[in-house]
Write a structure and sequence with these properties.
- By secondary structure, the protein is α+β, with helices and mostly antiparallel strands.
- The chain has two domains: 123 residues, Alpha-Beta Barrel (N-terminal domain of MutM-like DNA repair proteins); 125 residues, Helicase, Ruva Protein, domain 3, CATH 1.10.8.50.
- The chain contains six helices and ten strands.
- The strands form three sheets. A four-stranded antiparallel β-sheet has the order 1-6-7-5. Strands 2-3-4-8 form a four-stranded antiparallel β-sheet, covered by helices on one side.
- Helix 1 crosses helix 6, helix 3 packs across helix 6 and helix 5 crosses helix 6.
């Protein structure tokens, strides 16, 4: 699934193409996505100027004067810029046509979504899909105190608390494993028992891990392409623990272990990350 770095990389690409330009028309070739694409959406946005391309968690937000489109890439989707007139590929479901370029949403599994939030319904941050999301990892308010407060009283493991996304967004499965390794925290540690000092290490580790992923092209998927159609550098090729079960830890040479938490694979070093 595209994670926060992939979505942010995509946002930067479509921002360069769309922001400040008139959307001449939106074409929906397949409306049966995770939620049906509203039938009147092309008429609502056609002829409007794109005011901004933002991101909240894994959602892309394309802002117009009358409201905001919320786009989610689903399990394997991508949103890329192509030349006007380029032939459609199978699973190209939605197009945004500008005078100088076209954006296309490609989603083989159709788990993605394209929704609309009208300005008359209030700030887009209050949309049901967004309002319960945690803070952004690079936001200044995300610090050790914020994390410690969010973990208070939680009986689940720290790995599962990170994946929940209601404290901080962006700690997907790969990045959670990598960040916990960098912070030297065992993934089974009860969330409420993580000390303030370790919370500080985890905040720094998460930010550094996500920054490294962005620098690598934001790719956790082997077939991921960004908004210009370029493949990412595939972040997990450089991962310290993820998908390295049985291989030596890059720090202490202890074999990396794999466990399953909440039906998700977790990788860690039992020597560097003591419970």
């Amino acid at each position: 699934m595209p994670e926060l770095p992939e979505v942010e990389t995509t946002r930067r690409g479509i921002d360069a193409v769309a922001t400040g330009h008139v959307l001449e028309r939106m074409v929906v070739h397949e409306s049966r996505m995770r939620w049906p694409i509203p039938k009147d959406l092309p008429d609502l946005v056609g002829g409007q100027v794109v005011r901004a391309c933002k991101r909240r968690g894994k959602y892309l937000l394309i802002e117009f004067d009358q409201g905001t489109q919320l786009i989610h890439l689903g399990m394997s989707g991508s949103l890329r810029s192509v030349q006007n007139g380029e032939l459609l590929r199978k699973h190209d479901h939605v197009e945004w046509h500008f005078s100088h370029a076209t954006l296309r949403l490609h989603d083989p599994r159709r788990f993605g979504s394209v929704l609309w939030h009208s300005k008359s319904d209030g700030p887009v941050e209050q949309h049901p899909l967004l309002k319960k999301l945690g803070v952004e990892p690079f936001d200044s308010i995300f610090d050790a105190d914020w994390l410690k407060k969010g973990l208070a009283g939680r009986q689940v493991s720290i790995k599962q608390a990170l994946l929940a996304g209601d404290i901080v967004v962006g700690a997907g499965n790969i990045y959670a494993s990598e960040s916990l390794f960098r912070a030297r925290i065992h993934p089974k540690t009860q969330a409420a028992r993580v000390s303030l000092i370790r919370c500080a290490r985890l905040v720094e580790a998460l930010r550094n891990t996500l920054s490294d992923a962005l620098d690598s092209g934001g790719s956790t998927l082997r077939d991921y392409v960004n908004a210009t159609g370029e493949a990412g550098a595939y972040f997990t090729l450089h991962a310290a623990v993820y998908e390295r079960a049985g291989e030596p830890c890059r720090v202490c040479a202890t074999p990396i272990k794999r466990i399953v938490q909440g039906q998700r694979a977790t990788y860690f070093c039992p020597s560097c990350q003591k419970i």
